[in-house]
Amino acid sequence: MNFREEYSKKLRTADEAVRIIKDGDWVDYCQTCSFPTALDRALAKRKGELRDVKIRNAITMASVATVEADPEMESFTYNLWHCSGLDRKYIDSGRAFFSPMLFRNIGAYYSRGLAPVDVAMITVAPMDEHGDFSFGLTNCDMAELLGAAKKIILEANPNMPVIYGTEKDRINIKDADLVVESDEPISTVKGPSASDTDRKIAENIFPYLHDGITLQLGIGGIPNALGTLISQSDIKDIGMHTELMSDGYLDLYKAGKITNARKTLNKGKGIFSICNGSRELYDFLDRNPDILSAPMAYVNDPSVIGQLDDFISINGCLKADLYGQVSSESAGTRQISGTGGQLDFVTGAFLSRGGNAFLTMHSTFTDRQGKLCSNIVPRFTEGDIITVPRSQSPCIVTEYGAAFMPGKTVWERAEALINIAHPDFRDELVKAADAQHIWRRSNRI
User: Are 407 and 324 in contact (CB under 8 A)?
Assistant: First the structure.
């Protein structure tokens, strides 16, 4: 096949390419940095002309033209597998809807026909001499999504880095229907700075870290604070196996802490599935043979995670109750993020020899009326979504300490969680635990 000739036959402008979308179609943008900026903008121009077009995405990093052009959802309905801060605003304003999922299963939703795709529109790196387009920063469920799609439009962008994969890391021109060229900036995100509370929480986790661990980090101030502690420590030979790669890992690579030399799986290689962060991070990943992307079905598979000795998973949560149930994705019924891979990694870390999972949170928050509230509650009653059931809750960490849940009775859990609650709330939590018959009168805080 003459790849350049095939490319020329399929090359269109963005406005021309989106003409294949028709009423009632499901249009998929995949996730995060695969967002097709030029194609989304072109599709927005068809507002009022199209009806009932359902768009699917996750972790939106920049304004969505189709959403902004159609707040009444006359033509477009925006749907999300997982939420960024911008996505929360869309959902709060009634302009988007959430789809519950487990990240390890997301590819299967497509391959089993549970998530239909009429048109896939994704940003990829430019075509190489073999006719291939690298998926770049988003491996995730890309292969399954494209396999399910009736039509595929590629937005080829030189700003997308080429990233090598363990498998399923590219698409060939013969498998695409149309190609659009774009020079849009790939969205970047700056991680939040660590607060004093974040640093205290990181200090409570740090004693459980040692040479040779394989590390999965979420995003936020606590992972950033932990990264600083690790960078300044004597810990060495860390491995990386994570669903999302962020600048926290870049800092650890630059400090020489991540070598992947002692991993018991994919030795010598850092593994991730999706990435968002700084332009410096994207440039670091470009054609870097030491770091590979992989499908979410592999990265988040607990049986895979369990093969990595000394696996440490660190993610954030919002609240926990005295039974050890954890909510990480909603405040009451308000969607904040999603289950994502949290339960995947909690499950996998427990299967790992020497493994541990840590769920971190501040002990309190201040509500809109300025009232200080506890993030450790007697029980969930306001519609909060339970992300990690009590039967799988791992170690919960606040600025006041770490509370291990596995193997504990309900009264032991209550005692441990009250010990890491803010002191101002401990007495009322004891009273609640007693009323719920999960408190021993001999317990002491």
Answer: no
Query: What are the structure tokens assigned to 173, written together?
Result: 């021109």
State the pairing for strand pair 330-331/334-335.
antiparallel
Q: Position 396: which residue type? A: I
Residues of the chain with CATH 3.40.1080.10: 3-181
- Separation CA 66–CA 78 (nearest Å): 8
- Condensed to tens digits (0 to 9), the pLDDT of residues 7-20 reads 999 999 999 999 99
- Given the structure tokens 């289950």, which residue do they identify? 339
Residues 6+ apart with CB under 8 A from 300: 102, 103, 104, 243, 273, 341, 344, 345, 348
Give the integer Cα–Cα distance in Å for 140 and 269.
17
SS3 152: strand
Tokens 């487990």 appear where?
102
CATH 3.40.1080.20 fits 196-435, yes or no: yes
Radius of gyration of the chain (CA): 23
Tens of pLDDT along 181-229? 999 999 999 877 889 999 999 999 999 999 999 999 987 788 888 888 9
CB count within 10 Å of CB 93 equals 10
Task: With cut-offs at 50, 70 and 90, classify the pLDDT of residue 442.
Answer: low
The two tokens of residue 269 are: 């290689």
How far apart, in Å, do the first and last CA atoms of the chain sit?
A: 73
Share of the chain above pLDDT 90, in %: 89
Annotated catalytic, 243? yes
Residues 6+ apart with CB under 8 A from 282: 137, 161, 186, 188, 275
DSSP-assigned letters across all residues of 342-390: HHHHHHHHHHSTT-EEEEE--SEEE-TTS-EEESEESS--S----SB-T
CA distance 124 to 156: 5
Closest CA to 209 of 226, 196, 222, 190: 226
Q: What are the distances in angstroms from CA 81 to CA 99, 335, 368, 417?
A: 5, 11, 28, 31
| Start-end of CATH 3.40.1080.20 domains in the chain | 196-435
The architecture that CATH gives domain 3-181 is 3-Layer(aba) Sandwich (3.40)
Catalytic residue among 155, 243, 329, 399: 243
